[in-house]
């Protein structure tokens, strides 16, 4: 509900994944990622922000390989909230 340090989905290490199960099939047109701005970071940097990430679409939770919807780069020097259009 806010953009303060610590109120986030965090994981250990440099790799992670997230699966979102929806109640119905959708055809997304874009994705957004938000990270705290440098000005709110206690250390003055946002090196913990995501950098390179990919988004895949699945028909169901048991599908092993999804359809690549896009590969993106979060710009740590850009706005805290960034939108990425579906590439495929």
From TrEMBL:
Its main location: nucleus. It is found in: Nucleus inner membrane. Coiled coil: none annotated. One of its GO terms (molecular function) is protein-membrane adaptor activity. GO terms for cellular component: meiotic nuclear membrane microtubule tethering complex; nuclear inner membrane. Keywords: Membrane, Transmembrane, Transmembrane helix. Residues 1-88 form the SUN domain. PROSITE patterns: SUN. Transmembrane segments: none annotated. Gene3D superfamilies: Galactose-binding domain-like. InterPro entries: SUN1-5 (IPR045119), SUN_dom (IPR012919). It comes from the Eukaryota. Pfam families: Sad1_UNC. This is SUN1 protein.
